[in-house]
Amino acid sequence: MRTALKTSAPAPIKSIQLDMVPRRAAARPRLTDSAEPCGLRFVENNREMRQRLSAPAEPMVPQICTSSKKGTAMELSSFKDMYIAELQELVSVEEQLTAALLRMAQMASHSALRDAFIRHREETQVQKDRLESILQRHRVEPKVHTDQAMQALVHETEKMLEILKGNELRDAGLIASAQKLEHYEIAAYGTAAALAGQLELRDEQRKLHASLEEEKKTDLLLTPMAQGAVNRDALAA
Ligand SMILES: [Fe+2]
Fold first, then answer.
1. Ligand 1 centroid to 94 CA: how many Å?
2. How far apart are CA 202 and CA 236, in angstroms?
3. Number of domains the chain contains
């Protein structure tokens, strides 16, 4: 699953191999992006989201599975390398999820479900900023991995959207898919936060915990929907 790790010079992590896979230069973020105030970013994202929700839904997979990275297995020689690689994977997770949640919101029929996807998409963008700010501190490129587990989960979501017929059933399928995505994120953030703790990077551990708690809250928000109106409607349809 893991691909390659890339650093910008001068790299504090000496053992990282620099040229295992090609980088998507066009997709590389400006590191200064993370300096934008979160509140402003929220407002802009929300406006953009509302506009895009009225547009026809586009397939998820082509937007997010663009990587042709065929990296051979990379070598990580330190605990810190492993931690950094986990963070880079998480950047890819959040990036893929940002695109997926837009599509999921477009496809949702119940307004509560749609709103939940919109809210979590906003959180997702903030979480990605958090990750990038941590990686910036380590002077490491954030976008060098494609998280293939997330790709597979998003692909499964897209597949479900294609085969589930009827609004009620599709909403029930969206909740099921969203919870699988959330559980993966919970596992990934839990791991990253634990690694940060073991490296005694307390501020980073706190940031990762903040994202972890947001993921858990989203999962908890979806559960009553699955047990309540959305799935009741699907059962009755
Ligand atoms: Fe997230």
1. 5
2. 50
3. 1
Predicted confidence (pLDDT) per residue in 200-224, tens digit: 999 999 999 999 999 999 999 998 8
Q: Is residue 103 part of a domain?
A: yes
Q: Does a structural domain hold residue 140?
A: yes
CA 237 to ligand 1 center in whole angstroms: 32
C-alpha of residue 178 to centroid of ligand 1, in Å: 11
Q: Check the CA dihedral 160-189-85-94 and report its sign.
A: positive
Ligand 1 ion: Cβ-proximal residues, 5 Å cutoff: 124, 127, 185
The dihedrals phi and psi of 9, each to the nearest 5 degrees, come to -80, 145
* Spacing, Cα 123 to ligand 1 middle (Å): 7
CATH of the domain at 135: 1.20.1260.10
pLDDT in tens, 10-41: 444 333 333 333 333 333 333 333 333 333 44
Q: Collect all residues with Cβ–Cβ distance below 8 Å to 221 and sequence separation of at least 6.
A: 116
Maximum Cα–Cα distance for the chain, whole Å? 61
Q: Is residue 231 part of a domain?
A: yes
The count of C-alpha atoms lying within 13 angstroms of the C-alpha of 98, restricted to the half-sphere facing its C-beta, is 19
